[in-house]
Write a structure and sequence with these properties.
The chain is α+β, with helices and mostly antiparallel strands. It is about 20% helix and about 45% strand. It has 2 helices and 9 strands. The strands form 2 sheets. The protein has a 6-stranded mixed β-sheet with strand order 4-8-9-7-6-5, covered by helices on one side. A 3-stranded antiparallel β-sheet has the order 1-2-3, with no helix packed on it. Strand 5 and strand 6 form a beta hairpin.
Amino acid sequence: MQLTLTPHQLSIQLEWYEQLWAFTLHNPIVIPLAHLVGATTEKPQSRWTDLRAPGTYLPGVIKAGTYYTRAGKEFWYVTADPHVLTLELCEEPYQRLILALENPQDWATRLTQAKESLVQHQV
């Protein structure tokens, strides 16, 4: 997975095998920074009532794809790696993106700063 940050958007490019596990053709996933509500390294609680449609789930191995949860429609790509980046969104098909990444804290900080910079330029 490759993340690219520009002054106005975040692009998430999935590898072919990540697309396969997530059952998605949306590649890249492009999020305007104006639609980013927050970025954290906290992994949301996963519940057995989450509806997977479509996606892959192997407990302790992978959770990938589209899930309908109490919070709304979410995109997950999380492996056994405990390091995650959670993006809260508005005005997007997904309310949240949960991604397994190296250095998620760095990405959370970069995205928060980019969002703040965008808001300051709009004022």
